[in-house]
Amino acid sequence: MSSRFLKPTLRIYWAKELRSLLRDRNIVVYGLLLPLFLYPLLLFALSEVRALTAGMRERMEPAIAVADLPELETRLHEVVPPPRTFPLTGGAGEALASGVADLVIARSHGNGRLIVSHDSSSGPSRIALERFAPVIEKWRRQAESTALARATGWVERHEPTFVDTSEKTDSTRILLATLLPLILIVMCTFGATWPAIELTAGERERSTAETTFLLPLTRQDVALGKTLAVTSAAFVTLCVHLFAMLIAAGPLIAQVRGGTASIPSLAWQSLPLVLCFGLLLSLVFGTLFMLAGSYAKTFREAQAFVTPLQLLMMLPAILTLLPSATLDATTAWIPIFNAGLAFRAALLGDIDVQATATTLLSLSLCALLCFRTTVRRLSDTSFALGFADSDGIREKWS
Amino acid sequence: MSDEFPDSTLRTIGAGSEIDAGKRPHSIDGLESYAVMSIGLTKIFRRGERDEGLVAVRDVSFACSKGEVFGLLGPNGAGKTTTLRMLSTVLRPTIGTARVAGSDVRRAPQHVRASIGFLSGNTRLYPRLSVRETLEFFGRLHGFEGSELDGRVAHVIDALDMHEFADRRLERLSTGMAQKANIGRTLLHDPPVLVLDEPTSGLDVLGAAAMIDFVAEMRQRGKTVIFSTHVLTEAERLCDRIGILNNGRLHAVGSLDELRIRTGKEFLDQIFLSLVREDDASGGSDR
Amino acid sequence: MSWFTRLRVLVVKELRDLARDRKVFYAAILLPALIFPILLALTGKLTPEGPTTGIGLRIGLIGHGPEVDEIIRESPWANWATGADDDRIRSGELDAALIADYSGKRLTNFRVLYDKSSPLSELAARELRGVIERVRDRSRRNALDATGIDASSLPPRGVQYHDLANYVRTDPPTSPQFLPSMIMLMMLAAAAFAAIDLFPGERERGTLETLLVQPIRAEEALLGKYVAVFLVGYVAVIANIGGIAVASTFEASPLEIPLDASTIAGAILLTLPASALVAAILVRVAARAKTVREAQHYLLPLTLLNMVPALLAAAPEMQFDAFTACLPMAGPALALRELALGSFDPLAIAMMVVTTMLYCALVLQGALKYLANEEALLGDGDSDGKAARVIAVALFAILATFVVGPLLREAPTVVSILVPLVVFTALPAIVAGKSVGLGFDLRVFGRRTRGRSWIVAILTGIGLALVVSGVAALQRHLLAPPASFDEAGRNLIVSIPSLPVALLTLAIVPAIAEELLYRRFVLHGLRTELDRPRAILASAALFALHHLSVFRMIPSFVAGIVLGRLVLRTHRFWLAPVAHATSNAIMILLAHSASPLAGGSIARTFGDERLAVWRLLLGIVILVVTPWILERRQVWPLGRTAAIPDRT
C-alpha cells in the first residue's frame, strides 16, 4: 500500500481534488470559516440571554407567606435581596393560586414538619423555592442544634466537609471535555458530507466523472485519490473546530460563568492521540458518505442518501453525553461511540491503555472495511459511467 | 407592489400618453395591424444603489405585423433573451415600452401575458405533475373552467399526440415528450402571439425539426411568432423578417432580401457576420 | 376571474407539487409525528433512574462507628471498599470516599473526597451528602425526643415540599420549557423544505419563469407559494403536537403535562400565528437564494437565531405579559409554555397574535418588494458582495473583541480597552478598507472640514450624550440589567484614576477606532448597495452589536443612527469621531471621581431617572436645531434639498 501512496500521479490527483474542494465556497465557508464564528456567536447569544434573565431575576421580589415562624422570617430577610414576607391567612393553595404569594411556609400540626408549598407552573414561585429552600433547611438544622444544646448541653460540632481531589478544579476543562467529543464528531460528519457528495454525485452532475476516468491513472488510484481528498477535507474541518473550540471556549465559558478566562488546561500531551482518532473518524465518515453518494445521480439525491446516514453517525456521539457512558472493555468495541469516549478520556488525560488500544483497533478495522468497500465501489465501471441505477437502490429503500 | 408602472420616461418616448392604465388599451390608428411593436426598449441591470449598471439591451425598436414570423438573430450575450423577456413582461424595461397583441407591456402586463405563449429554455414544467395536470393548471390560470377547460386540454393532447403519456409525471418523460407538453402549455389558451426563445436549443435533430415544423404550422394558422435563435439556417427557412442583435443593439431589421441588398452578401451567415463585424469595428460595445 | 380563485388554483398546485415530494412528507409529517415518541422511548430506556437502581458507585471508607453503619444501611446504591486516598479517586478506581473521624467513641467529623471532574464522582458526592444529612437529622432528632421536651416548642422535624401546580406528575417540570421551542424547530424544518423547493428549487428546475409569463400578478404567485409553505409548516406543527400527545400517554413519559383535548386544541390554535411568521421569514429568505444549496446554507443561521427566543422562553424569569408577548417568536413560545402550565392571560395572548401577525405582514411585504425586482426573481441580479464583505469584517471585529475581552481581564484596564480597539477595530477597518475602494486616506467622505463644522460636531456630541443617557434610562424600565452590569460600568471608570488617561482611553481612542470601522468602512461599503436610510440603519445595528451587551444595544443603536446621519449628510468623516468623543467625554466627566463636575448638580441631573424624558427631548432639539442655526441649511440640510452626490 505504501508504494501506492508514493506514486506521483496519485499525489497529483489527490492534490487537484483537494484544491478544487478548498476552492468550493460552500466547503470553505461551512468547513473552515463557520467554526471560527459559530462558537463565539452562540455563546455570545447565550451569555446575553443569561444577563437578561439575571437582570429580571434580581428585580424579582418573591412574596413569601409565613405562618407564625418569626425566627425563620428574620432569617429569610437576611438574604440579599430580601423577600417580601407576610403572615399567611387562609390556605396555602389559595395564596399561591391567587398569585398573592410565591412561596408558602407553614408548620404541619400533625407530624411537626415544615411544609413549604410552591407552584411549579409559575416562574417566580420556582425561583423563590430555588433561592430559599437551602435557607430554610439550614435554619431548621441550626434551630434543632440550638434546641439540643439548650436541652442537653450537647453541642453538635461536625459539619461534613467535601474535598475535591481533582488536580485542577477547572470546571471549564470538564465541560469542554464533555462537549468537545460530541462537537468534533458532529462537525467531522459535516466536514465530510459536502466533499463526499461533491466528488461523487457532484462530479456526475457536472459530467466530469468521465473526464476523470480518462486520466492516465488506474481506477483504484482515482478512487484512492478521491477518498484521500475527502478524508483530508473532513480532517481539516475537525482540526479547525478543535482549534476554534480551544481558543474560544475558555473565554466564552468565563463570560457565561464569570471568573477569569484561560485556555483550558486540557491534557495537551494526548493531542496526538486525539488527532489520530480524528483521522480515523474522518476516514470512516468520508468513505461511508462517498459510498452513499456514489449511488446518487444528482447532488440533491446524494444529499437525501447522505443526510440520514449522517444523523445515524451522530447518534452514538450524542449518547456519549450520558453520565453513565464510560470507556471500558465493552464500549471500546463500539465504533464512533468509543471514539467519543476516548476523545473525552484523552482530553482529561486519564488514558486507559487497554481501552485506548481496543478503540484504536476497532476504529481502524471499521475504517479499513469502509475504505475497502468504497474504493471497490468507486473503481467499479457502474460508478465511472453513471450506469448505476439509483432507482434500484431507491426502490429497495422504500 | 403593482404591475402598473407610471414612468415619466414613457412620455418622452411618446408612447404612453394615449394608453389608459389598467384597461385594455384601445387601438391606435394605423397600429392595429402590428401584433408586436417595440419602442426604444432598453434594459439596464444594476447591482446596487450606486452601480452604474450593465446595459443589456439598448434602444431596440421594431414592429412585426400579424401573421408574421420575426427572427431575432445574434451571438450569445447579444440581448436576445432579455429583449424577449421584456416583450413577455417577465422583465420590466428600464426605458421604452412595447405593445404586444394590442396591450402595453408596462401598463397592462397581465393582458400581454394572457395573449402570448412564451417558451424558452427557462420556462420548464413542474416535474412532479402529470402532463394533464400541468395543462389543467395553466388553463385555470388563464381563466378556463369546467367543460371549456376539459375541451381545451383534450384538444391540445389530441393535437400534439400526447395520449400515450398524458397521465405520466413529467419527471418520467423524455426530453422530447416534455418539450411537447411545454408546447402544449403555450398553445392551450390559443394566443395570437408566440414568443419563442431559442426553441431548438437542447433538442436533437428530430426534436428540432419538429419544432421548426411547429413554427411553420403556426405561421399557416396566422399566428405571429417572434423567436430568437443563433442557428442561421432556421432563421433563413422560417423568418419573414429578421432582426440582427449584437451587443444589445438592433443593427438591422428586414426581410432576407432587404438584408442581402443592404450588405451585398448572398447567404445569411455572411450577412450576419458582416453586420456583426461592422458593429464591432465601430466599437459598438457599451459595456 | 377573481384573485381568490387564482390564488386557490395556485395553492392547490403548489400543495400537490409538494405532496408528491417524498422528502416533504418525511419532514412535515413523519419526522414531527415520530420524533417525540421515539425520543422519549429512547431517553426513558437510556437514562438510569437514579443510582439506586443503576450503576453501583464505588465508595472507599475509612473509620468505623455506629453512624457509619447507619450510612452504609442507608446507601444500597454503593459498593463499599475499605481504605481511600486521593489517587484512587483520581484514577477512577473509587468514585468517592467517606472518611469518618472518631475521637474515642464520638464522631468528630465526616469528610467526603470526590473528584469534581468526573460526573460519576460528583453524583456519588451528592448522594453521600443526602445520606449524611439524613443520618445526622435522625440522630439529632432522637436526642431531642429523648429530652422529653414538648414537640410543639421544638423546631420543625423536617421540611416537606409541596408542589401545588395542578398538572404536575413529577418534579421538576421541564417539558413546558423546552417543548415550545422544539415545536417551532420542527415547524421551521418542515416549512424550510417547502420554501426551498418552491423558490430556489423552482428556479433551478426552470419553472419559475413559466409561472411568471402566466396572466397572474407577482404578488399572487408569492402569496400562493407562501400559503403552501405555511400549510406544510402548520401540518408539521399539528403532527408534532399529535406526537407529543401520544408520547405523553407513555408509561415512563418524562412529560409532566397531561394533555387533554382542550390543551391540544389550544396549542394548535396558539401555534398558528407563529407558523405564519416562520413561513413568512422562510419565504423571504428562500426567495433570495439562487440555488437549493445556497438556500440550505441560510437555514443554519436561521435555526441558530431561532434559538435565542427559545432560550428566553425557557427561562423561568420570563413572564408572559402584554410586553413580552410582543417579542417576535419569544411571545408565541411563551404563550405555548403558559398554555402547557395551565394559565391563561387573554390580553397577552391577544397582543401576541396581533404583533406576530404584524411582523408576518411586514416580512411578507419585504419579500414582495424583493420579488418585485425581477432581476432578483430570475436570479440574474448579482451583487458584487461589498456589503457582505463589510458585514463579515464588522462581525469579525465584534466577535474578536468578545473573545479577547475575558482573556485580557487580568491586564491593566487601559490595555484591556485599547488592545481590542486598536487591533480588532481600527486595524481591520483600515486594512480591509481597500476591498471596498477606500484607500489609506482617512479623509473619505471627506470634504475639507471648516471651523463651523467642528462646532456642529461638538454640539452633536452634546445632543448625543443627552439622547443616549435619556434612552438608556428609559430602557431600564423594560430591560433591567443585573447589578453586576452596573457595577462593571462604574468600576471601569473608577479603575483609571487619572482623568486625562480616562478621557483618552474611554473617549478619544474608542471614538476614533469605532468611527473608523462603522462610519467610514462599514457605512461606505453598505452605501454601494443600499440606499441611505438602510445603510445608516444597518451600520447602526452592527455598531450596536459591537457594544456586546443587550443593555447597551438600544442606546448605541440610536447613537449609530445619529452619527451615521451626521457623516452622510455632511460628507465629512472626521465630524463623527469628534461628536462621539464629545459625547463619551461628557459621560466620563460627570462620573469620574477626579473630575470637577462629578457629584455636582449637573451630574445629578444627568443621572436622575425621572428626568430621562426631558434629557431625551432636549437632546433631540439640539440635534435638530444645531445644523439649522449654524449652517443655515448648508452643511446638514433637514430636507433632501441639497442632494450632493456622495464621493465614490
Question: Summed up, what is this model?
Answer:
Chain A is mainly α and 398 residues long.
Describe the structure.
The complex is a heterotrimer of chains A (398), B (287) and C (648). Chain A is mostly helical and 398 residues long. Chain A is 69% helix and 6% strand. Chain A is built from 15 helices and five strands. Chain A has a four-stranded mixed sheet. In chain A, helix 7 packs antiparallel against helix 11, helix 9 packs across helix 10 and helix 9 crosses helix 13. With 287 residues, chain B is an alpha/beta fold. Chain B is 36% helix and 22% strand. Chain B has a six-stranded mixed sheet, sandwiched between helices. The relative contact order of chain B is 0.15. With 648 residues, chain C is mainly alpha-helical. A four-stranded mixed sheet of chain C has the order 2-1-3-4. In chain C, a hairpin with a 2-residue loop joins strand 3 and strand 4. In chain C, helix 20 packs antiparallel against helix 23. At the A-C interface, helix 3, helix 5, strand 4, helix 6 and strand 5 of A face helix 2, helix 5, strand 4, helix 6 and strand 5 of C. Strand 5 of chain A pairs parallel with strand 4 of chain C.
Oligomeric composition of the shown chains: heterotrimer
Radius of gyration of chain C: 32 Å
Helical segment tally of chain C? 25
Second rung of CATH, namely the architecture of the largest domain in chain B: 3-Layer(aba) Sandwich
Overall body shape of chain C: globular
Number of strands of chain B: 10
Class inferred from helices and paired strands of chain C = mainly alpha
Number of strands of chain C: 5
Principal-axis shape of chain B: globular
Biggest sheet strand line-up of chain C: 2-1-3-4
Unreliable spans of chain B are 1-29
- How many domains of chain C, as an integer? 3
The most extensive interface between chains reads: A-C, 100 and 99 residues
Q: What gap, in angstroms, lies between the N and C termini of chain B? A: 31 Å
